[in-house]
Amino acid sequence: MTRQIFILIVAIGLVVLGGIGETNYLNNSSNFVLADINYTENMLNNKNIEKAKESIKELENSWKNVKDAWNIFVQNDLIDQIDDSLVELKAYINLENYEESLVYIQKLRENLITIVDRQKILCENIF
């Protein structure tokens, strides 16, 4: 009986530690992508379209580096939402449509933050 309880406690501990590690990874990797989003937004706010076009390439590269690992932890439809927002953002930047670009930057930012928040170990996310 005590051996079974010990195994159960160890298993629960591993699940909790794995969840904490996952949350930390998602939070840290999202910060890299969010930094590129913020830089792109600053370039758009300054009406510097050439720098915005360059920064969207950096943003795409950052997302590609993070995306493969996120596919392990996150639902695919949430990853697809970020991909879609990124494609639309790039299109609006290439069309030099500042207002729509800023809308999709905010949408992209909110999607990233929502994913990280959903993966946290909280009672509301478990039940």
Description of the structure:
- The protein is mainly α.
- The protein has one domain: Four Helix Bundle (Hemerythrin (Met), subunit A) (Up-down Bundle).
- The protein is 90% helix and 0% strand.
- The protein is elongated and about 70 Å long.
List the helices and strands and how they pair.
Elements: H1 2-45, H2 49-73, H3 76-94, H4 98-119, H5 123-126
Main beta sheet: strand number and arrangement?
A: none
Task: Estimate the strand proportion.
Answer: under 5%
Say what the CATH topology is: Four Helix Bundle (Hemerythrin (Met), subunit A)
Low-confidence stretches: none
Evaluate the radius of gyration. 19 Å
* CATH C-level: Mainly Alpha
What is the gist of this entry?
By secondary structure, this protein is an all-alpha fold. The chain has 5 helices and no strands.
Give a quick set of tags describing it.
Four Helix Bundle (Hemerythrin (Met), subunit A); about 130 residues; 5 helices; mainly alpha; about 0% strand
